[in-house]
Amino acid sequence: MKGKHSQPWHHTKRLHIRLTADEKKQMAEMAKEHGLSLSDFVRVTITRSKPVMPKAKPDRELFIRTLAQLGKVGSNVNQIAHELHRERIVGNGHHVPDRIIESALSSVKALSNHLITLLTDGAQG
């Protein structure tokens, strides 16, 4: 069922069906195995349409969370570098060689790039 109304924000109608607890559990497990929400799983199964928003599989979700945490680490290292630089200009800071800070930032960036590569390669394969 393709066409101009296939965007997720056009899904405004609801379909109510009755299931046993076991049927609903089984459908939810199948949806999870396919990395889909229950609504997308039913929609894709019945209409053969594309999923609206595939859920990240656990390993991909872990990569995404790790990448987010790594971004926070990089931001913290950057803030530390700026503060050390500011204190050095004022004259009351400790001297940390720029190469150490640059190395830390470079390592965070390299690891982030590696994770992004793994994430995008995994999405294509």
TrEMBL record:
It comes from the Bacteria. GO terms for biological process: regulation of DNA-templated transcription. InterPro entries: NikA-like, Ribbon_hlx_hlx. This is Uncharacterized protein.
